[in-house]
Amino acid sequence: MEWLPSLNRKKLAEKAFSTTENTELLNKTIFPFIIELTEKELMKYDKILLDAPTLFESGLDSVCTKTIVVLANRSKRFQRILVRDNLDEKSATLRLNAGKNDSFYTERADFVLYNNTDIDQLNLKFEKLLKENF
Questions:
Q1: pTM of the complete model beyond 0.90
Q2: What are the distances in angstroms from CA 131 to CA 30, 31, 127?
């Protein structure tokens, strides 16, 4: 069996989110690849939906006709990070603090959805937004 490299996401996150400089270095490293892949997909289709947590940071919002930001309150985000990524509180706090504040997103987005309940409620809000605006 051929050896394939693997990514230890937990170790990478510990390092990447430990300082603002490390987060920026990670972003500068991966954004060109994300942009290239996205641009290839854009050439294949008339319309696509991007699920992009770093849409504004990467500059990919420039290829969007409309943007929708999904936010949750800080305590809800914290709990979700703990569960989703199986992190301790310190690591979850580092990750949460590495992100931009909500106004960074709300000031740039065309629409804002709040996801403080469950996925079914978010889907209902999303469907309503689509019906009313697209």
A1: no
A2: 34, 32, 6
